[in-house]
Design brief:
The chain has 415 residues and is mainly beta. It is 14% helix and 43% strand.
Length: 415
């Protein structure tokens, strides 16, 4: 029966749905430095999910927006510059206003001289009548002549368009982290040198080299950040002595942890410390012990016991090793099967739990949903002082009937 469940769960290509997740940050802030002629420009970008905005109805649309300001302070906390930008968004569907998978985002440029600075961001949400001061961040702006290797820039691998321009990069915009995801992400590294000799690039995680000298070098192209239709574009312009490298689809091989990019030329070298983060990680997977215990309802007890007996520091790796055996894409680090399973648990908890409890994954409806996914049809019928829910799975030729005899939402599987 357990093995049969494996087959059912992992046919879910026809049943996979996208579940909203609670992102860890209500607002993401990221900064990047790019050389422009003989100066350095600081680019500060933000990203806020729609469910953190205030929308008002305007005819057949729902509109919102944000004003974001940055106070740039010197080492003595004297104000050097203050910049402010306003960004607007409009949607047609009310449900989208509650989405944490849709975002308003934008980028602001500040030209700075060499020195150490603190940046104090603040936001004003439209229609909320409230200013919020965010945590400051510190930046060291080097001498432009010493700015050889720029900070790695994480972008979406799929190219995008803006106005009449195609094949443009889009900034991932998650505070500089590399998303641990089934989607593909790449990394750009700006180079500000006259000639490129003996360039080598290595990616290191857990002390091991993952990808050495597997990159594309783009010469005489200068990077720039632009706002375009609620997305941030990283554009390319012809420019001597400006180059950049691309590490394509780099997140495929990197686990959700810290890693290093080590870049060397014939004259100097630099190491960048970065992180890969599962940004929309299922909540049920964030407590590793609970994530293992739920497996007892679906898998062989001896197998789950073996996972649970691992040392506390190794529990998560033990859990990932268990799911790796069922991974449809074993050549990548992200396991879609594992993600889908725990996303279904989240959905079950959110939709099938008893009042004042989080037991949705333990209910009959929750167990069927976790096992088979979203039904093809779901019909609710009221009959003889009880409520019936009828779930049909057409492709699997299965039907489940749940009955609530008390009117409290406690649905019991009848068939």
């Amino acid at each position: 029966m357990k093995l049969f469940f494996f087959r059912l769960l992992f046919i879910f290509s026809a049943f996979t749905i996208i579940y909203p997740q609670n992102f860890s940050n209500p607002i993401y802030l990221e900064w990047n430095l790019l050389k422009k002629d003989s100066t350095l420009n600081l680019y500060i970008s933000f990203r806020v999910s729609y469910d953190n905005l205030f929308f008002v109805k305007d005819n057949n649309h729902y509109k919102s927006g944000i004003t974001i300001s940055y106070d740039v302070m010197d080492e003595n906390m004297n104000l050097v510059k203050r910049v402010s930008d306003e960004f607007n968004v409009s949607v047609d569907d009310y449900n989208q206003t509650n989405s944490n998978l849709s975002f308003i985002e934008g980028v602001t440029a500040v030209s700075l001289n060499q020195g150490n600075y603190s940046v104090v961001p603040s936001v004003n949400l439209f229609y909320a009548d409230k200013d919020v001061i965010l945590k400051k961040f510190d930046i060291e702006v080097p001498n432009p002549n010493d700015f050889t290797f720029g900070k790695p820039i994480v972008i979406e691998s799929n190219l995008t368009n803006c106005d009449n321009s195609n094949d443009l990069f889009r900034l991932a915009n998650f505070e500089g982290v590399l998303p641990f995801s089934s989607e593909n992400y790449s990394i750009l590294i700006p180079l500000n040198i006259t000639e490129v000799y003996d360039l080598s690039v290595d990616i290191i995680q857990y002390g091991k080299s993952l990808k050495q000298n597997d990159y594309s070098l783009i010469k005489n192209e200068e990077l720039n950040f632009l706002n375009c239709s609620n997305k941030i574009i990283v554009s390319k312009n012809k420019s001597d002595n400006h180059h950049f490298i691309i590490l394509k689809d780099v997140n495929k091989m990197i686990d959700e942890d810290e890693f290093i990019i080590h870049i060397k030329s014939d004259k100097e070298e630099k190491k960048f410390d970065l992180r890969s983060v599962w940004i929309n990680k299922p909540r049920s997977l964030r407590n590793v012990k609970e994530a293992i215990l739920i497996l007892f309802d679906y898998f062989d007890e001896k197998v789950v016991d073996e996972i649970y007996r691992a040392d506390s520091d190794s529990l998560y790796n033990s859990l990932k090793k268990f799911w790796k055996k069922m991974d449809r894409t074993p050549e990548t680090t992200f396991n879609e099967i594992m993600s889908e399973f725990y996303s279904r648990i989240d959905f079950a908890i959110d939709n099938f739990s008893s009042i004042n409890k989080s037991d949705g994954a333990k209910t009959d409806r929750g167990k069927v949903f976790i096992k088979y996914g979203e039904p093809s049809s779901n019909e609710r019928v009221f009959s003889n002082n009880k409520v019936l829910e009828i779930w049909q799975y057409e492709q699997l030729e299965k039907k489940f009937i749940f009955t609530d005899n008390t009117g409290t939402g406690n649905f019991i599987l009848e068939k």
